[in-house]
Specification:
Layout lengths: L12 E8 L2 E8 L5 H12 L18 E6 L11 E2 L5 H16 L5 E5 L1
Parallel strand pairs: 1-5
Antiparallel strand pairs: 1-2, 2-3, 3-4
Length: 116
């Protein structure tokens, strides 16, 4: 889908806030050419999120090469956030099913909020 041409875009990562049943899940999709450590440092610097842990998502191909989700992320609070795999996350399933449409809608932007 868009994993192969993601690295040709600037910025190289996209942030998608999914509002689902009154909670926010934040997904970050990134180019696989960068190491986890590099991505962690760049995103922490760019958006000011302190990372407690990170885990590579190796599930659906729809989710590009690398993806993390941050569950119950408070947009107005920079408290430490845990990142886990989203295999069983309903919002993750929604995102996987609709990422192609979402990606086309946010071409050229690195952050978007959608309501499920």
């Amino acid at each position: 889908m868009f994993g192969s041409d993601l690295k040709r875009r600037k910025p190289f990562y996209q942030i998608i806030h999914v509002h689902y049943k009154e909670k926010v899940t934040m997904f970050i999709t990134v180019c696989s050419d960068y190491s986890i450590g590099t991505i962690k440092r760049i995103i922490q610097k760019e958006i000011g999120i302190p990372w407690e842990c990170q885990k590579l998502f190796n599930g659906r191909e729809h989710l590009a090469n690398n993806a993390w989700y941050l569950e119950d992320y408070d947009i107005n609070n920079n408290s430490t956030i845990s990142i886990e795999e989203c295999n069983d996350c309903e919002a993750g399933a929604f995102l996987a099913a609709h990422l192609n449409i979402i990606n086309n809608e946010i071409e050229g932007r690195n952050e978007v909020k959608i309501t499920v």
